[in-house]
Amino acid sequence: MSNQFFADIPTIRYEGPDSHNELAYRFYDKDRVVMGKRMEDHLRFAACFWHTFCWPGSDVFGGGTFNRPWHRGANDAAAAHEKRETAFEFFTKLDIPFYCFHDVDVMADAQSVSEHRSHFAEAVDHLEALQGTSGRRLLWGTANLFSHPRFAAGAATSPDPEVYAFAAMQVRDALEATHRLGGANYVLWGGREGYETLANTNLGREMDNFGRFLAMVVEHKHKIGFDGTILIEPKPHEPTKHQYDFDTATVYGFLKRYGLENEVCVNIEANHATLGGHTFEHELAMASALGIFGSIDANRGDHQNGWDTDQFPNSAEEMTLAMLEVLRAGGFTNGGFNFDAKVRRQSVDAADLFYGHVGGIDTVARGLLNAAAIIEDGRIDQIRSERYAGWDNDLGKKIGTLDLGGIADLAEKEALNPKHRSGQQERIENLVNRFC
Amino acid sequence: MSNQFFADIPTIRYEGPDSHNELAYRFYDKDRVVMGKRMEDHLRFAACFWHTFCWPGSDVFGGGTFNRPWHRGANDAAAAHEKRETAFEFFTKLDIPFYCFHDVDVMADAQSVSEHRSHFAEAVDHLEALQGTSGRRLLWGTANLFSHPRFAAGAATSPDPEVYAFAAMQVRDALEATHRLGGANYVLWGGREGYETLANTNLGREMDNFGRFLAMVVEHKHKIGFDGTILIEPKPHEPTKHQYDFDTATVYGFLKRYGLENEVCVNIEANHATLGGHTFEHELAMASALGIFGSIDANRGDHQNGWDTDQFPNSAEEMTLAMLEVLRAGGFTNGGFNFDAKVRRQSVDAADLFYGHVGGIDTVARGLLNAAAIIEDGRIDQIRSERYAGWDNDLGKKIGTLDLGGIADLAEKEALNPKHRSGQQERIENLVNRFC
Amino acid sequence: MSNQFFADIPTIRYEGPDSHNELAYRFYDKDRVVMGKRMEDHLRFAACFWHTFCWPGSDVFGGGTFNRPWHRGANDAAAAHEKRETAFEFFTKLDIPFYCFHDVDVMADAQSVSEHRSHFAEAVDHLEALQGTSGRRLLWGTANLFSHPRFAAGAATSPDPEVYAFAAMQVRDALEATHRLGGANYVLWGGREGYETLANTNLGREMDNFGRFLAMVVEHKHKIGFDGTILIEPKPHEPTKHQYDFDTATVYGFLKRYGLENEVCVNIEANHATLGGHTFEHELAMASALGIFGSIDANRGDHQNGWDTDQFPNSAEEMTLAMLEVLRAGGFTNGGFNFDAKVRRQSVDAADLFYGHVGGIDTVARGLLNAAAIIEDGRIDQIRSERYAGWDNDLGKKIGTLDLGGIADLAEKEALNPKHRSGQQERIENLVNRFC
Amino acid sequence: MSNQFFADIPTIRYEGPDSHNELAYRFYDKDRVVMGKRMEDHLRFAACFWHTFCWPGSDVFGGGTFNRPWHRGANDAAAAHEKRETAFEFFTKLDIPFYCFHDVDVMADAQSVSEHRSHFAEAVDHLEALQGTSGRRLLWGTANLFSHPRFAAGAATSPDPEVYAFAAMQVRDALEATHRLGGANYVLWGGREGYETLANTNLGREMDNFGRFLAMVVEHKHKIGFDGTILIEPKPHEPTKHQYDFDTATVYGFLKRYGLENEVCVNIEANHATLGGHTFEHELAMASALGIFGSIDANRGDHQNGWDTDQFPNSAEEMTLAMLEVLRAGGFTNGGFNFDAKVRRQSVDAADLFYGHVGGIDTVARGLLNAAAIIEDGRIDQIRSERYAGWDNDLGKKIGTLDLGGIADLAEKEALNPKHRSGQQERIENLVNRFC
Hints:
- The structure is a homotetramer.
- Chain A is built from 16 helices and 12 strands.
- The first copy, chain A, is of the alpha/beta class.
- Chain A has 2 domains: 13-377, Alpha-Beta Barrel (TIM Barrel); 381-433, no CATH class.
- Chain A is globular and about 80 Å long.
- The two termini of chain A are 43 Å apart.
- In chain A, 62% of the residues are buried.
- Chains in contact: A-B, A-C, A-D, B-C, B-D, C-D.
- Chains A, B, C, D: Belongs to the xylose isomerase family.
- Chains A, B, C, D: It is an enzyme of class 5 (isomerase).
- Chains A, B, C, D: Its cofactor is Mg(2+).
């Protein structure tokens, strides 16, 4: 029985900040109402298959350390079955409502299109059953278009149309499975949709192929009646030198170019934000301002290392700033917090998977509580609002009615000589810290 | 007489690769025809006022080292006059066709709107005269909306509408001056159009103000009959923590958002590209693919330092890759190569200004010659083209006619099992090196 | 009277976490005893002259925004006097025990060696008097060997021996002044002791000159009977491309090379650590392990920006990790926490200087309280200690007595096949967060 | 027969710059004498086993793409034998004198100490035979102490003494094998000798264990009469968050701390230099100045990506600066240029391995020719030398005889007022470019 794997771990429950139990929630109290909504409904936590159940603990310099039972032989039907069972045991013991997967995460290995389709279908049947018995739901599904050697040069941006077609098959099936499983969203992360060198790359052609692919996905979504959200996940690079979905602003331009800005939103990952030269909260605020905020991949990077470390979030301070943007954006519609995070390669025990997620969940929960307190306090929003007050006064309104020449004439006529006023950054930072 | 300043420096002439003269061009032969065009017409070199005539050699940790005569007292009418005279002596001795300026670079300091207008007008009169006598032309003009303390929180994105109006006055005047002086382009670099902290920033409001400002500039351009190109210069950060015009892809999205993608192009700076996590050639290729390639600020950064070092380009290898993209984009229309580059703070001699520009100009010229040779050779373009050949064959064409489901069905019916083919990156890199 | 400048600001007092007063300490309770020592004695806070009283709010892209009264004219004797008075008013109102300065920060501008000596002497007389009336003490003094144009190519590493001699004069006088003022340390930050390009640099010669300079400073310290600590402040680059005192490990090697490892310690700056690819706590732990931990320059950088932003520390989480290393190192001997931090260029109000320092002081105080709680709790130290327990057992001890061949033979004889045990990183991170 | 693998590839020969043969050397003419030495003797090229014969083309996001015959089953005795045969075919066809290996690269997989020893011994016998028939020599050997899960927490710095002992066994055997095979050097790269989090790490204890390990290696080298050089290879991070051998200056301090600075040198890798915030030439110049320059791992990184890309060097410009430092250091003694470089994951053809190495070898050869020309020209060395001329004059010499007070008095007595002279960086950069 696969559920032997976590036999020693109890279901994780809320016990409050003073609990000495290291396998309990101290801040995530799912039924607590914050700003009119239960925490569970605010945060919509999901755990993922790939890092937690598929990755063996390998890295570029060494092999797998984890020694999970389902990794000891080939990834055949029995191993895939055991993995799915164990995963749902995990989701249930964490007591979080959602999970996420790539097609290949949940199925036995396949050598052909037909094997892919039949193995995946078998997996989806099982997932549906597991959802039923466990009460867990699907936050989003996706297709893995980057791990198999056929995708070495991309999928929707591959120079080879056969690869493009193979990818279309996987996405069609994964989208339909997501629909059938009641998924709230469908994600596309452009793993190798980018380039290694411009010297062999036709940038315009690849982007056009990618745009058309995305448009077809949107069309298919409507055709099958899927009412979840299609999400693009930005990342600047890795594995490719340059990834077309560099960051939120880039994705927005891409969507506008192909007329998809009302159809597709972004799934923002903290570690991808920092790799791209942004803070996590920047990407959230930008997505919100551009009207494409969708969902979140919760993790953190290492500020001294230049690759995707996918560590569990553990800074309540940083999460407070992020949650502030989430709340300002009105919170999630279909989105949620998926832990695209992995335990360190040295963290080989089953319990480590729980420590990672419990810590991450509590960090996000603290962020929510802090951010809600900041909003309810109101001082920071008021300082920010007063900073722009001039735009709501006579001059600001008048400027809204004039053209460039008119405004320039006004500046001259009024002999404007604006003095700089303090931006009060240090004061505001202190105020934020009052809530951390 | 200001022209004493460069009295010891001869006019720079082409003398060929074997010349031992360190103040001669070895590769820039302005009348040499490359791919059907004179080098001068291909490259359209400009030198700039700010780094070369305004900056005193200061940095954050120390004062000016340069001791130029026009910096010894206040920047009054006489000093500004001397600076302009000296600059045109310089442009002429370099024998390049163009120059660039910010309003405040060329004028005496002003304390009010009216002083700004009158001092600037006086400067423009003089520039017009100097253009006439020297035969030099204006590649682009711009307004400095970031140095004066009033712009500490931005100009078009300032929270204070008075600042916005002051900026409108400067831009109106600078745009009209550019028109009068026959400028080929007008540039907006968003120096402080960004934020220091999200905590005091209304991102959406600032971007909307910025979008409207830009739309008004475009409208004014048409109103006055200026037929040059309006250019935005991307930069990811510095001086601000985050700059709205992060990179070319971001600017494209911004233009699309405000309906300006057919009105505005980008002025791409090499050092800004690398600060943003891109190669210089990436930004050029992206601008070309998106249809917004305008002009270039030639310089280089330091790969180990995280700020804008604005050094002169000195890598013919890197410039070859950049020029390849310029040639593929069809070359410049209104744009050109402006040296937004400065001699090092230790390079205090007048001759150093010439060494910097002569080296930079020859580097760009070598890049052009190498890139033209690559294109004329044809092998690299052929390898690239063959890589995508499948898209021009039956399968590729058929995919163009099907929807997602149709393509997926095709993959199944044909039992596609694509094998990865070599991307030949090492071979192509060797081929490129044959031309460097 | 200069003390008009902060007339509106009260002396900052401890009022506890629940205080609503934004100009009070919520965590820094100077007389509170933590692990057997008063907080004031643990933390030994200092404020600095340069960022707070000398910098006008300029940056590379724009002029000063601050408009301080003593900056309105030349930096003559009267202005310098007013600056010193105002600074001591500030130190006193912050109620912190220490301050720090560079020679040129506190004196009127000088045009020659003799002026430098007389202006500086005048300033030192005044500082001594101000110390007496205010009860404030000197944490450290230093000489500015990087701002004047004469130091453009370095001071102790200058190619010009005249510059070296000028620097020796400044350091001799600054060291003697520090001694006279009862300073606890003397600092050398190698502002331009590095290079811009290897092409014009004799690395070995410059390092030898630098080593000898430092040895002479140590010799002079002993000669005059100064019993404070000589400190080197590591920084990887900026303003120079490469700075010889790159990081703590580099400085250690440098000290060993010139036989100074028992004479000189490091002054570790948080922002310099991160610019060098390290965490702040790494540099502290490394300095402690190498026996050269001296003092701290408290600030923070911006993880997305590649230059020294010198912001006030505001992360209690990060400071907790740093304070853990400080406590493990046994705390300060002569060192202390100097705020080498500056308000943002937009923070133009006098009050902003207080917000910055109050927030920074409370952040450090929280870090101390959290770190002390972690140590008193003991769990984390125990986990760490158990991880190495094998080294205290038979095998570990035996290894200590064998040579390479002996150990290899042992591995074979015992047929060792070690299994990896969990490093428990996620669990430990959760434990740390219990104290934040 | 394994030599079927490269059957289509001819032995690579020098054909000169004008050759159209893409599989010929255009610059590497092994018998050409440069500055009194044959190019082969200057450059001492080696190819490596790991990237070229062991790595299957996998990365963190996807599986192997290369499909080499010896990877199709288990890495047993037959596969290892075929790999060794193929590798020597490759070294021979490249016509380079040297190769390099880790123990596990060349042997069948082992499950125990005794298997490790016997499988490795078998491999060494074969290598010895292959050296004899091919005439290829061993530049250096090393032990892989980072890939097996047992080394997840380090080897010489492991918290587990069993792991330390296992590592000692591997190093003892690899060192003795290197000696037997006539290797010129023995390398230690501290793959996981670092930490993931300070929270579970005893920095001082780990460094002391590491220091003792290295001392034992040196002792064993003398014991067995190995007269090659022991080399440490610096790298700042990856796979660990922080690696103890961060860079050359750090390694120097480490060697000094454990009294090994006259016993151990550094093996400098270009990509590790740039990951550590340095140029390649910086690390070479630093190693030379500190007297620990040993050997080179030739490759390049990607300036926009923050991980070790290990690409083949392809910039003759950058290599010229590096070779300048190598020549200034007097060239190699035991060291050489080992290609620690891998073809891209998309470069799946056997020919790609040749394109990569041929391009890299020619790049290094061009660097040598350019650097030798610069030195023979003499101008740059002269400019540099003149820059320091003051130190050879009266003042410079006098300073050498005085103490700090004496120099300070001199500055005052002579009323020194040094003026900054130009560092001529732009002029020198132009001169360098004359030779590229």
